[in-house]
């Protein structure tokens, strides 16, 4: 093997012998190069022998036994090994699946701390640690031809003056987007950059985001992931990326530079470009499970190093699965807990990301007895961490066995599916009263106010990657997942097709659908909390009724820029501009429902269509579909971020989700300052008529109006 060397330095091999190694250090874990060579360190408390495998592109392999062990970390330093070197590990030790022990030196393992991974999994029976049909008998088939390799990575990068943006939560607008799907068909992005980190950083892509008015991109998983074997057999792929192999490695397939190391620098360049445009980068991360699946899954990494340490086990052989994927990461053990924390810090410190959205975060809250708790060690570690305590932390507050909305610690925000369901039900006319809606519009204080949390703890959304797009939500009454491997996806869509299932040329149906899409967007953006838009909703992206497109790496999922709905795009820009202009829509504290500071008006007031205040019985009236509420511009209850007094116009929202027009009496029309209509979801781009001279205003069926009035 021709091991990489540097001019004038000792080679890593002795003539005719194995690569030369020195003891090295147990910290940091992973492959850490310096000017003379590379230190390798990996954890296993059950291994009897660990071999570092140095690999050539043609598969030639040289093995270096790691003889130094400190605190269950096996390590060595190899002079002359430089960035670009491919490597893996083989671990010898007990193979006793009934006791959770699955060491197998025939399986080449990916370093859990690899900072870049080259190649993909080629599905073959040799990937499994046991013989087919004989779960207690070790398979000695070599897996090396079928598994990816880790890469030694040069961490150097010229960040210049790049720094964390730290956009206040109250001012944040999230845009959930897929790196590949966003630009794969974008006509203004060069073809060789489409679907890549470089494509997302291209000026055409950045301009769309900045002109839209979002402040952060929330990227679907970009940790190195595996395409499931059952999908590959059907000609499909793991599109969403919730099948992690490497927690410190950016997914190589998303790099225009290829997967031989350039993906790291390209990811950093993307982050720098987005930051320069004022956009934060949030990563959707999957620390709840890995790509190794259950006891019948492949041995790719953690399972081969120390199965019982890295995974939650049930009766030794089986996996305690709260994720629906076959396994759950065991964050009650120090090694996987350290892996998660080291990975998070790496992405902040070395890759400059601004925060994380934690997939199935309730799994990370499970400790003794397997029940989730807000006092979990993981949360304590994050709370006190000087790095992670400064970034955005967003939980998907459930897993397959637990629902924890509102139960996460103070630093965290949470995906609020109660918000999603309430708003969907409202606009399809299925509410049982308006009481729950009022909570959702005002920041969900019933869920988040306990523990001194704020409205920004609620990440509000109507659509997300998991489920219908906005276009499909108003175009389909049921899911259409026939292109998927099975009848998957939820049946609880709370959607409406408005008379025709799917595509139609009927102008009346299309007009209703367009208005209902605008209603849902307007409700989202005008609510208290942190709004999250699903990428592509602003241009009318469709998945043809597929509500679980996790395996559709094709035109079902990719943005169709040629078919962009320009009216909807203009409406969304107008809507986000209004949110940006009015601080009363971006409160940092919950409403008090009374005058505050020196205001004459309550900070928040609710009205019936006749202009009288809502009474207790009005909230529970099951047929109510119309509501007005006002926000006092001089009733913002806290100073601005620099201590300055914040003032705004008085704001008024008139909402009619019913099937007939409703005449609203406008509150406070006895003043000398009239209301001004700013947004009307009944028009294609939200165009509004301006000053309202009368004391009443008719709101058409299924329509929302937004008005302002200067504070006198």
Secondary-structure blueprint:
Blueprint: E1 30-33, E2 37-43, E3 49-55, E4 61-66, E5 68-70, E6 73-79, E7 86-92, E8 95-96, E9 101-102, E10 117-118, E11 130-131, E12 134-138, E13 149-151, E14 174-177, H1 179-183, H2 197-200, H3 203-212, E15 216-219, E16 223-225, H4 229-232, E17 244-250, H5 262-276, E18 280-285, H6 302-310, E19 313-314, E20 318-319, H7 334-349, E21 355-358, H8 377-384, E22 392-395, E23 398-399, E24 402-403, E25 413-416, H9 417-427, H10 435-441, H11 445-448, E26 458-460, H12 470-473, H13 507-525, E27 530-534, H14 566-581, E28 604-607, H15 616-620, E29 626-631, E30 650-656, E31 662-665, E32 676-680, E33 690-691, E34 696-699, E35 703-709
Parallel strand pairs: 14-15, 14-27, 15-18, 18-21, 21-22, 22-25, 25-26, 26-27
Antiparallel strand pairs: 1-2, 2-6, 3-4, 3-7, 5-6, 7-13, 8-9, 10-13, 11-12, 16-17, 19-20, 23-24, 28-29, 29-30, 30-35, 31-34, 32-33, 32-35
Helix pairs in contact: 9-10, 13-14
């Amino acid at each position: 093997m021709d091991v990489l060397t540097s001019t004038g330095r000792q080679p890593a091999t002795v003539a005719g012998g194995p690569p030369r190694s020195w003891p090295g250090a147990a910290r940091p874990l992973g492959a850490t190069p310096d000017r003379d060579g590379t230190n390798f360190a990996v954890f296993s408390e059950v291994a009897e022998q660990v071999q570092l495998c140095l690999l050539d592109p043609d598969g030639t392999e040289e093995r270096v036994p790691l003889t130094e062990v400190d605190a269950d970390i096996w390590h060595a330093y190899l002079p002359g090994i430089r960035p670009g070197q491919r490597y893996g590990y083989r671990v010898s030790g007990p193979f006793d699946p009934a006791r959770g022990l699955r060491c197998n030196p025939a399986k080449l393992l990916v370093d859990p701390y690899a900072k870049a991974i080259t190649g993909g999994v080629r599905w073959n029976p040799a990937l499994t640690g046991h013989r087919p049909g004989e779960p207690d008998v070790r398979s000695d088939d070599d897996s090396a031809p079928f598994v990816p390799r880790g890469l030694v990575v040069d961490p150097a990068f010229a960040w210049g003056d790049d720094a964390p943006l730290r956009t206040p939560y109250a001012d944040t607008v999230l845009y959930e987007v897929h790196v590949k799907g966003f630009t794969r068909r974008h006509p203004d992005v060069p073809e060789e950059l489409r679907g890549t980190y470089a494509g997302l950083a291209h000026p055409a892509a950045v301009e769309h985001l900045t002109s839209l008015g979002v402040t952060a991109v929330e990227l679907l998983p970009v940790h190195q992931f595996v395409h499931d074997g059952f999908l590959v057999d059907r000609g499909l792929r793991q599109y969403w990326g919730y099948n992690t192999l490497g927690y410190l490695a950016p997914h190589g397939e998303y790099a225009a530079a290829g997967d031989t190391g350039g993906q790291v620098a390209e990811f950093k360049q993307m982050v720098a470009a987005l930051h320069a445009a004022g956009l934060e980068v949030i990563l959707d991360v999957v620390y709840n499970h890995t790509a190794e699946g259950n006891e019948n899954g492949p041995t790719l990494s953690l399972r081969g190093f120390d199965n019982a340490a890295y995974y939650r086990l049930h009766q030794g052989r089986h996996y305690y699965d709260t994720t629906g994927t076959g396994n759950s990461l065991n964050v009650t053990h120090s090694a996987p807990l350290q892996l998660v924390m080291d990975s998070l810090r790496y992405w902040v410190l070395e890759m400059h990301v601004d925060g994380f959205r934690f997939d199935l975060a309730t799994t990370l809250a499970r400790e003794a007895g397997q029940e989730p708790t807000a006092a979990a060690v993981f949360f304590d570690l994050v709370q006190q961490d000087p790095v992670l305590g400064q970034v955005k932390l967003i939980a998907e507050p459930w897993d397959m066995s637990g629902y924890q909305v509102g139960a996460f610690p103070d630093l965290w925000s949470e995906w609020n599916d109660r918000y999603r369901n309430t708003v969907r039900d409202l606009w399809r006319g299925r509410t049982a009263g308006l009481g729950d809606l009022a909570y959702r519009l005002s920041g969900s204080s019933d869920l988040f106010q306990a523990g001194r949390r704020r409205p920004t703890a609620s990440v509000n959304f109507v659509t997300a990657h998991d489920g219908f797009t906005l276009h499909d939500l108003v175009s389909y009454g049921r899911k259409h997942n026939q292109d998927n491997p099975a009848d998957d996806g939820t049946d609880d869509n709370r959607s409406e097709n408005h008379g025709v299932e799917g595509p139609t040329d009927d102008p009346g149906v299309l007009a209703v659908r367009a208005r209902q899409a605008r209603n849902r967007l307007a409700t989202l953006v005008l609510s208290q909390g942190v709004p999250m838009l699903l990428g592509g909703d602003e241009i009318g992206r469709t998945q043809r009724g597929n509500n679980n497109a996790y395996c559709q790496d094709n035109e079902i999922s990719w943005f169709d820029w040629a078919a962009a709905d320009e009216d909807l795009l203009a409406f969304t820009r107008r809507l986000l501009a209004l949110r940006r202009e009015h601080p009363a829509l971006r409160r940092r504290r919950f409403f008090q429902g009374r005058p505050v500071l020196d205001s004459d008006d309550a900070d928040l007031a609710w009205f019936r269509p006749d202009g009288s205040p809502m009474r207790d019985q009005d909230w529970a009236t099951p047929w109510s579909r119309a509501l007005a509420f006002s926000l006092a511009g001089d009733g913002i209850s806290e100073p601005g971020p620099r201590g300055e007094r914040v003032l705004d116009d008085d704001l008024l929202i008139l909402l009619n989700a019913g099937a007939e027009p409703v005449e609203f009496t406008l509150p406070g029309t006895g003043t000398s300052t009239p209301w001004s209509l700013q947004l009307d979801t009944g028009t294609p781009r939200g165009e509004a008529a301006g000053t309202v001279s009368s004391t009443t205003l008719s709101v058409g069926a299924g329509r929302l109006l937004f008005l302002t009035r200067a504070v006198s």
